[in-house]
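Researcher: Let's try something more involved. This one mixes different molecule types, so please make sure each is placed in the same coordinate frame as the others.
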Amino acid sequence: MRGVVRRFLLMILTVLGITLLVFALMAAGPGGVAAALRPGPGEGESAERAAREAYLEGRYGLDRPTAEQYVRWLGRLSPVKFGRPPRIGPAGERLEAPRAPSPPVLLEWAGVAAAPAPSSDNVGSDWRAAADRAARALAGYFAARAEYEAVLRRYARSAGEVGAIDASGRVVPERLRRRPMDPSNAETPAVVEAARRAAAAHGAARSGCEAYGRALKTSALPSAGFVIVPGAVYLDRPDLGMSFSRGRPVADLIAEALPITVLLNLLAFALVYAIGIPAGILAAARGGTWIDAALRAVFIGLWSLPIVWSAVMLQGFLAHAGRLAWFPPTGLHSPGADEWPMLPFTDESGAWRAGFLGDALWHLCLPVACLAMGSFAVLSRQTRAAVLENLHADYARTARAKGASERAILFRHVLRNSLLPIITLFAGVFPAMLSGSVVVESVFNIPGMGTLIFDAVMLRDREVLMASVLMVSVVNVLALWLADVLYALADPRVSVA
Amino acid sequence: MESRFGLKDAVLLALVVSLGVMVFLLLRQEDRQWAEMRSLRRTIEEQAKLLAEVRREIAAGREAKAGAAGRRDEWARPGVPITVPPAWTCASDPRSHPDFAEGGVITEILDGAPQRLTPYIGNDPFAHRIVQETVLECLAAYDSRTLDLRGWLAEAWQADPAGLWLRVKIRDEACFSDGEPVTAEDVRFTVMDYVLNESIDAGPSRSEVGLIRGVRVIGPKVVEFEFKEARYNNLRAALRNAVLPARFYSRFTPERLNASTGLVFGSGPYRLESAEAEAEWSPPKDVVLVRNERYWGDRPPPDRLRFTFAADTRARLAEFENGRGDVMRSTPEQHAAKAKDPAFLERARALAWTNMRSGYLVITWNCGERRGRPTPFADARVRRAMTLALDRDRINRDFYGGMCEVATGPFPRRQAEASIEPWPFDMNEASRLLAEAGWADRDGDGVLEDGSGRAFEWELTYPTGSAVGERVGPYIQDQCARLGVRVTLRAVDPAALGQIRRERDFDATPVQWSWSGPEYDPFQTLHSSQAEGGDNFGQWRNARADALMDRGRGTVDETERMAVWRELHRIIHEEQPSTYLLNVPWTRFVSRRIENVHPYPVGFDRREWFVPRDRQ
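Model: All components are placed in one shared frame. Result:
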């Protein structure tokens, strides 16, 4: 038992390590973590683009150091949270005052005083109005900050400050701070003016956010979560964040996509086991005959086909109207299937229809076949080896000596003992299938986890990618752990410790 | 060890069988309720149709009475002329067609799934294509043929000659799909409390609506827009926004709206099957729009519009060819292949035409500095030499199946200077220009060098999978090699390309821009103020062009403005900040199941389409 727990704790560390690695890789990769957040070509003029970008970065906390972003991400994930719990709005949405944004850089250098701390009076009780004011103030600040940074860039350029602008066009404050501001520079008055405006806007934004927080606190809206220490610690569901590219909660996106991928993989899994194990037994029982050779040739052949190639071929030949249109080319349902009953029926024109369930199964045939075909070889070869080994074991010979039939030996004695290694295979086949479903889902246009992950990678959608990596690594690590535990349960000689 | 089928096994088997039977019976029961519900729904739909008929007749009577009473203009400001645009009608009336029939479903296969349909939020292009002019309506629409603005929800308007305000009279009969009238308050709410609300994720829509300073309600059906400055596109900013019902949308907090996926409610001829917040549409389901039986205008022919999604181009074509969709966007390769396939053309139309939503393809030269050093393209002669060295007719023929036209500049035809001819394909002239700019093969290695001995080499930076980069790129390489110029092809990740363009870290990059309206404002892509942080990736700076762009945007008078754009076109043609390759048309496959399909300068007008009875 202690071994099981210890392994479990190790698993958590492994998953954390994976997330840290992915987070760091994304932050370091070209294009940054949020290509999806940047306005695309044609979306507005430079000033408003800069303001919008700053707004989105502030909103998603991307203007903070990477390490802090990771810690915040972990904090959101943790069920134990610190601070005041969010309130629940009229339609069940979570309301939380935004954090005060970080102040503009280089204020002292520009000789501008930071805005004074916000006063705690003028507590409005109307949280809606306070939310509106806070949003306006924040947007105003981000616009002012973007403009201030543009002026700073102009100053740095005209002052010939080498390296004060980094590759992505951002000002490097440390470089500018090395030398005092040059009063003779033509841009200096503009810098001071823009700094003053940004500082004032920052003050307004900070007080707006705080006023919103106070308005929420005094409102009659119920709190989310379960408070442990009032105002300090509470329990709440993990928050996977908002997708940068789709603007929706990541948890919702995963809730839509995961069941589809799980269904696809479970069906493929069942198919692999249903064909792989009997084929392995047959190959072992008829070891060395043409049946063994044929099974090996076919399965190794299927195993060596790249999934993407076989998916495109199956789609092109079995699902295209120009060839054999036996299967639908893409998707999970026929158009209009959502209006069909579950079971087969005849419609108004007297035509037979498969019904919603039958239609879905028909759509899943090709994707499931693609996912499964590579795994037959692994499973059947493993089964064959295990069965052959046991057929030559002492106990099988003893049974034979006692006069048991070959059939009885195979099915009653050998088979049970040969299934042990197949348990561990589960842990290996499952991750392989999950990665295969990325390809299968894109070819067959199935909106599952594979498509979600693929899009997130293409658009550098950090929140979706991190959540998906978390899901996949948890599933894989759990599968490994489960295989270990099952193995120990099935074979008393093995201990998890 | 004996294997016998014992009592335990029998009980187990019985349990499994009965479980199976129970699941089956449950499904049967579910299906019976389903059938019952469908018949109920059909009855309700028929009732709604009947009611709609009655309502229409009453409205027609009321209109005739109002017409008899004469037009009243008391809503208008005195002394300023009123524009009463002709009421919107289909350019090709489906009802005059001999096969005309109401009913049926039209299915469009879109190239991506929208993430949300809620208007303005997230600025989803697919959502826009689905709900605009089907569920949601604007105050005015573009005439399919002339592209002039015609009244839609608006009956008439009055524009300030100085371009600073616009007063609009909304049609009396216009109503939302719940039967409540469209009012001036709804227009004000949409702009001021929704799109310009900082808490709502309507960022990209805000940039155009941002021209509006304020909206005033003058009367229940009269609204006045006030603009920040006189701009030619003020009219469009005010009249081309979908009007949302204030009653419906003001019920939700910004957080709820931002997280919503399918809160769509409008005045258009179609509506979502369920507009209820509790049962909103969510991806990845198909979007089904049903006819709004309470629609105030002409009934559209099909009962339903269905939108399915296939991002993969091959999968999309397979779906279309299997008859699972009626309309799809084709790639240039698909179009070139299918437009010559008689078997395909029997079942479908392959359409390619230039319209106000198509665009142009360019290779943008970095005219400024890259990593602190000017690129060879800082010299206009070099840029022109590049244009002369590329046979754009051949690019059109070999890579686009000849469906494009060679471009001369960024403008659509009605805005362009007609006398400008594309630069010819002339390698000799290109060589001469390069020599004039100081490039010569000084060391005899076949590559040109400048006075300081720097070899003439440049990179074409394109996103992986880009047709221009991967197919036209090698041709450009060959052509340049003939001139003694070395070209490297650099395929980068699409997400990284954004960053590269922002940093201006490229020599040349292909870009496809779309016009997205009858008139194209080149400010974003060519004005020097946009060279830093904006879309002027090539950092082209030209004071005369800047002045013309500023003047053009601020000129409300159309004739005067067109003269400005044409002068600008001449400068762009001489300067070649980009090599304007081709005007790329829209390509669509449309099934022959649908009738009355016409390509227009506006794009398509789906309101005209119908499915003859025998093909429903």
